[in-house]
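Progress against Task 2.4 (sequence-to-structure conversion) is shown through the following example record, which the project officer requested during the mid-term review.
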Amino acid sequence: MIHPEKPRPQITARDWLSLLFLSCIWGSSFILIKKSLVGFSFFEMGLMRTVVAFLAFLPFVFYFSKKIVWRRWKEYLLISLTGSAIPAFLYAIAQTQITSIASGILNSLTPLFTIIFGVLFFNTKSSLLQFGGVLLGLAGAVLIILFGSELYIGARPVYGLFVVLGTMSYALNGNFIKRLFQNDDPLVLGAVSFLFVGFPFLLIAIYIGIPQKVISEPAAQLSLMYLTLLSVMSTVISLIIYYHLLQRTTALFASSVTYIMPAIVLFWGVIDGEQLLPFHFIGLLLIVMGIYLIRKD
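Structure tokens generated for the chain above:
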């Protein structure tokens, strides 16, 4: 059942601190994706990112089993697919061809698609100013995809579109959480949402031989370390914070975590030797201006 949206809540200092902490965690995820891809294919990485998060959440499923409304399994599955499983594969395949900097900046489109999907599917009111913000943000994304996202000579910057699809998935997830799970415990929600995809993914990982690969290949062992850090920090802990922030504030405020994330993304990218291009800054400026306009209304 879809519940009517509540009046706009008061944003507190606690909410801003949560937003800052979440930005630091998620801003670091793109360099961890890059490191995880050294020893894994994008498919293996997408599987294992979900599997590790599933295993980390599993004890909470047993602990909170009485609080879980099992008849809502379809809604839990929807949250898991849009918030974790689908983006895990999309961001992994994108970063086989584009830099972590480009991927992180393109991720800033999430608030833009949050307002677009809110208007189209969730009866969210919009204004001409917000529409202008969406156009600015999309223009910035086009610049980065066309001119600022190549990982190396011969790479295909069009792979930045996979990040765009990932931001669409996150935007849908934010709206779904706000409308379907406004009053649910964030820890319970995070734990049960992985249950329905984590176990099948674990079986697939075993079937295609990922455990044997980790045992026999040093590169896979190192990548598993980065991937575990990515899953625990950027998926498990961050989802709990994000769901709590969504419930306390609005989908648009929570998605504006992308205001701060680009600074973290740029920092790690430069540290790892990636090249900063003028189009990175121009595209980022347009996206941030777009986010500002859609939140100004």
